[in-house]
TrEMBL record:
The chain crosses the membrane at residues 330-352. Keywords: Membrane, Signal, Transmembrane, Transmembrane helix. Residues 1-23 form the signal peptide. This is Uncharacterized protein.
Length: 362
């Protein structure tokens, strides 16, 4: 009798332990690598679509710790699909904790479906000059779609941070045929549950997207996403082989770390408030660090004109013409509205007379 009671107690205790283990099982155990890849791809693709039309401003602080040097800029941006715009305003140069110089010259980088361009000068007064431009068809096969687009992609890092690993868009990375999830782990960051995914990929073999296929070498590392908050990227680290600066050293190992901080907006959705990034070479301490903060984003359509040279008072490249949309003048709409109101007034007046006549005859 006693042994059977002990057995029942033991089985009951074992059941409680199993139940507690099941209840506390990590969320990552619910996913196979294939399921995680599919759900994560669905989440970050929706995020990418949300940020396809937006504009705003932010502040960027670039630090080079080895020489105690900082550059601080105010940046204005606009995105309309694959049309991008970055305006870098006044630049503060700090050395050893002291303001060294203020550069008042501004730069404008823009890209549309036909070409990309770089302007310098005074943006407020439209005293801008064209430094260079790249025709899209001539740089289509180059990494990131050309040097100007590549630089704009860097400046858009904080805006694309919810669905990117620095300048690597996660949707394009997850779709690449060589992408592999090696391991899934659970964690927490800033009080939010995250899943960390270790991965490896060869984004340039085969070439699928200029935004990720800029290297044929392997890229490996990890990233953290928050499934409960729209699969937003929270942190990442990846390593890749970058071109060396000497013939005897053709490739150099580079490691990139990043962290993204969020607030929750009035709709209950996460919005980026800060983005941090550092780059290390040859396993040495970081030689460059970037912090982007005071981020302000407005979602909605952006005028197509802002991505064209003519908007800044400069001629379009030879052979480039744009079909201008014929917009109805405001006064035409006012006349139409007045005509509708007049028609309604006449109708109601006629209706009132008819009703009075009907009552008098009755």
């Amino acid at each position: 009798m006693r042994s059977s009671r002990v057995t029942r107690l033991g089985l009951g205790g074992l059941g409680c332990v199993l139940l507690s283990v099941c209840a506390a099982s990590p969320a990552s155990s619910q996913y196979t690598p294939e399921q995680f890849r599919a759900d994560c791809l669905d989440g970050v693709t929706k995020l990418e679509e949300r940020y396809r039309h937006c504009s705003g401003r932010y502040r960027i602080i670039e630090t080079m710790p080895r020489v105690d040097w900082q550059l601080i800029r105010d940046v204005e941006f606009a995105v309309s699909g694959e049309q991008w715009l970055i305006i870098c305003h006044n630049l503060e140069e700090w050395r050893k904790g002291q303001l060294h110089k203020v550069h008042y010259q501004q730069s404008v980088r823009g890209a549309n479906s036909v070409y990309s361009f770089l302007l310098t000068g005074r943006y407020e007064t439209r005293e801008l000059r064209l430094e260079t431009y790249e025709m899209a068809e001539e740089v289509a096969s180059k990494p990131s779609g050309g040097g100007i687009r590549d630089m704009i992609a860097f400046w858009l890092s904080p805006i694309r941070a919810p669905f990117s690993l620095r300048t690597l868009p996660l949707p394009a990375l997850l779709r690449h045929p060589t992408f592999r999830v090696l391991k899934l782990r659970d964690g927490e960051r800033e009080g939010v549950r995250v899943i960390r995914a270790d991965f490896e990929v060869r984004p340039g073999q085969p070439f699928t997207d200029p935004r990720i296929s800029w290297t044929r070498e392997p890229v490996w590392g990890w990233f953290e996403v928050a499934p409960d908050q729209e699969w937003t990227v929270r942190a990442f680290e990846y390593t890749y082989m970058a071109p060396g600066h000497k013939p005897e050293i053709p490739l150099v190992k580079a490691r990139v770390n990043g962290e993204v901080l969020y607030n929750i907006d009035f709709e209950g959705r996460p919005i980026v408030i800060q983005f941090k990034e550092s780059t290390s070479w040859r396993d040495l301490p970081p030689d460059s660090m970037i912090e982007m903060k005071d981020i302000q984003i407005e979602y909605g359509p952006v005028s197509e004109d802002r991505f064209r040279l003519s908007y800044y008072g400069l001629p379009e490249p030879p052979g480039v013409t744009w079909v201008q949309e014929r917009r109805t003048p405001v006064y035409v709409w006012l006349l139409v509205a007045a005509g509708v109101l007049l028609t309604l007034a006449v109708f109601f007046r006629w209706l009132a007379r008819r009703l009075r006549r009907g009552h008098s005859e009755g």
